[in-house]
């Protein structure tokens, strides 16, 4: 392998490492966002469950 090929390979490896690091950070960011959305979803489900319970109780009272 000559110097030109070696330099080209090194450049390609560096580009791949930079892409990997960028994608790894993006993945961590998306994981954090997913966790936040799951927590929000759980809270909304809980609130919706409470609202449905109140509606059912009112239905029983008015029946």
- Number of H/I helices: 1
SSE string, helices as H and strands as E: H
Structural class: mainly alpha
Largest sheet, strands/sense/barrel = none
Mean pLDDT: 97
Share of helix among residues?
over 70%
The domain tally reads: 1
The rough form would be described as: rod-shaped
What Rg, in angstroms, do the CA atoms define?
27 Å
In total, the number of strands is 0
β-strand amount: under 5%
Low-confidence stretches: none
Distance between the termini: 87 Å
Q: Which short descriptors sum up this protein?
A:
63 residues; mainly alpha; 0% strand; rod-shaped
What would your notes on this structure say?
The chain has 63 residues and is mainly α. The chain has one domain (1-62). It is 95% helix and 0% strand. The chain is built from 1 helix and no strands. The chain has one helix at residues 3-62. The chain is rod-shaped. The mean pLDDT is 97.
In short:
The chain has 63 residues and is mostly helical. Helices cover 95% and strands 0% of the residues. It has one helix at residues 3-62.
Walk me through the topology:
Elements: H1 3-62
């Amino acid at each position: 392998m000559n110097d030109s090929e070696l330099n080209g390979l090194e450049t390609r490896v560096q580009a791949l490492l930079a892409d990997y690091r960028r994608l790894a950070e993006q993945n961590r960011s998306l994981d954090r966002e997913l966790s936040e959305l799951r927590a929000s979803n759980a809270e909304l489900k809980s609130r919706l469950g409470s609202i449905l319970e109140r509606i059912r109780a009112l239905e029983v009272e008015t029946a």
